[in-house]
């Protein structure tokens, strides 16, 4: 008897990209069309169950085995790096981590900088690798105003189009890394659910090994 696979993902681009990918794989995803306020969806054939959760919680659900599979941005995995297996780069949801600030910022100045970010682990690692000692200021809301009001010298944040930065008088000084949607799996599920590996292989055949560049 085929065991049901539970997939945790977030609303928005990740959900839309995942649904599109599964449709390309030949699965009927029409049951996801009219979601309303529901957070749990089950395919008519009982093959899949989808959980719509907050991005950081995707790793939690997979880590604890509530979900067999998670689809989430690499940005979340960098800040929550343990308790799951990262299997595939799905090559959608493309953006990048960048260092941005006002035009007064000098990235070559090696004085101790204050960096505002929602991603303290990535930001600290990036500057440490450059041999720079920085003070990380953790902000949960919009970080764009931090350099403008003098709270920080620069920010580390996700950049997609750059329009929000420009609207707040900021510009990109350094790109850190590419971000895309990734598939993660629960370690026990990979052993105990024989349906999981063929599913992963099928998706891998669609996304391939090629890394799509973000420009």
TrEMBL record:
What does the entry list under GO cellular component?
A: cytoplasm
For molecular function, the Gene Ontology terms on record are: ATP binding; ATP phosphoribosyltransferase activity
Q: In which pathway does it act?
A: Amino-acid biosynthesis; L-histidine biosynthesis; L-histidine from 5-phospho-alpha-D-ribose 1-diphosphate: step 1/9
In this chain the ATP phosphoribosyltransferase catalytic domain maps to 54-204
Record carries keyword Transmembrane helix: no
Question: Which reaction is recorded as catalysed by this protein?
Answer: 1-(5-phospho-beta-D-ribosyl)-ATP + diphosphate = 5-phospho-alpha-D-ribose 1-diphosphate + ATP
Q: Which UniProt keywords apply?
A: Amino-acid biosynthesis, ATP-binding, Cytoplasm, Glycosyltransferase, Histidine biosynthesis, Nucleotide-binding, Transferase
| Alphabetical list of Gene3D superfamilies matching this protein | Periplasmic binding protein-like II
Q: Indicate the enzyme's highest-level EC class.
A: transferase
Q: Which GO terms describe its biological process?
A: L-histidine biosynthetic process
**Which EC numbers does the record give?**
2.4.2.17
Keyword presence, Metal-binding? no
Q: Which domain of life is it from?
A: Bacteria
Where is the protein situated, by its record's location annotation? Answer: Cytoplasm
Q: How does it assemble?
A: Heteromultimer composed of HisG and HisZ subunits.
In UniProt terms, what function does this protein have? Catalyzes the condensation of ATP and 5-phosphoribose 1-diphosphate to form N'-(5'-phosphoribosyl)-ATP (PR-ATP). Has a crucial role in the pathway because the rate of histidine biosynthesis seems to be controlled primarily by regulation of HisG enzymatic activity.
NCBIfam families, per database record: hisG
Q: What is known of its domains?
A: Lacks the C-terminal regulatory region which is replaced by HisZ.
Q: Which PANTHER family match?
A: ATP PHOSPHORIBOSYLTRANSFERASE, ATP PHOSPHORIBOSYLTRANSFERASE ATP-PRTASE
The family classification in the record reads: Belongs to the ATP phosphoribosyltransferase family. Short subfamily.
Protein name, as recorded: ATP phosphoribosyltransferase
Q: Which organism is it from?
A: Streptococcus ratti
Query: What is this protein's gene name?
Result: hisG
């Amino acid at each position: 008897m085929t065991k049901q696979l539970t997939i945790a993902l977030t609303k928005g681009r990740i959900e839309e990209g995942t649904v599109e990918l599964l449709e390309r794989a030949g699965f009927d995803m029409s049951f996801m069309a009219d979601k309303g306020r529901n957070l749990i969806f089950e395919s008519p054939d009982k093959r899949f169950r989808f959980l719509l959760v907050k991005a950081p919680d995707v790793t939690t659900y997979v880590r604890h085995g509530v979900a067999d599979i998670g689809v989430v941005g690499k940005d979340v995995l960098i800040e929550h790096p343990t308790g799951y297996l990262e299997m595939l780069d799905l090559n959608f949801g493309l953006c990048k981590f960048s260092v941005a600030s006002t035009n007064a910022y000098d990235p070559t100045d090696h004085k101790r900088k204050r960096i505002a970010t929602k991603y303290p682990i990535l930001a600290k690692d990036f500057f440490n690798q450059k041999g720079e000692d920085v003070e990380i200021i953790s902000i949960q809301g919009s970080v764009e105003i931090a350099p403008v009001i003098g709270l920080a010298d620069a920010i580390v944040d996700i950049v997609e189009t750059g329009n929000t930065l420009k609207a707040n008088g900021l510009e990109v000084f350094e790109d850190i890394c590419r971000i895309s949607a990734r598939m993660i799996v629960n370690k026990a599920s990979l052993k105990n659910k024989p349906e999981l590996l063929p599913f992963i292989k099928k998706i891998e055949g669609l996304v391939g090994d090629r890394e799509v560049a973000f420009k």
